[in-house]
Amino acid sequence: MLNADAAELDKFGELAHRWWDPDGEFKPLHQINPLRLDWIRQQAQITGARVLDVGCGGGILAESMAQAGARVTGIDLSPKPLKVARLHAMEAGVQLDYREVAAEALAQEMPGQFDVVTCMEMLEHVPEPASVVQACATLVRPGGTVFFSTLNRNLKSYLLAIVGAEHVLKMIPKGTHDHQRFIRPAELAAQARQAGLAAFAMAGLEFNPLTQRYRLSADASVNYLVACRRV
Question: Where is S-adenosyl-L-methionine bound in this sequence (predicted)?
Fold first, then answer.
């Protein structure tokens, strides 16, 4: 069975035409992308590396990594965002490859073929996140680096990421997230270990409603990023 939620794919598909609007529904992704790209580059060499972006959507991170000199493949199961990603890359003159394929299927096709694998803001949208973690571990070469980002599951994350971001500040559309699908860092670390990955770095991502800016911090209580190495 495909490890995907049809409602989630449809939800992001219907917003695909807004993906590259910096003031639209995906404004937070545009705001955090420089932060997460810098953090990725601090933990791994991506210039000249073969990089896979799992759950690439409209290609914001994938395209920025390609512009940084990586040889990027982006995969997603929602065709509309992929069309937007391909068109934007063509207009921007950026060379990268987009494919409509599941991470688990690509893992069978191309095991150990990537130096770096990124899976950002995706795990909380799939029925079986551990399956995606395992696929990412299979896709990266031994010694390679895998990056995940997701949301912690606790009262604070519910109040800030759902009540605050979706209902009060209206930063993202209502229904974007399901709090029950959020993943605690210890749970993600356990899934990574089971897949043969060793976490070696973590960072929190905080939003200041007064300045309307994000910053990286040591606070992983809401949004957080994890870097793992395939052992």
Answer: 36, 55, 76, 120
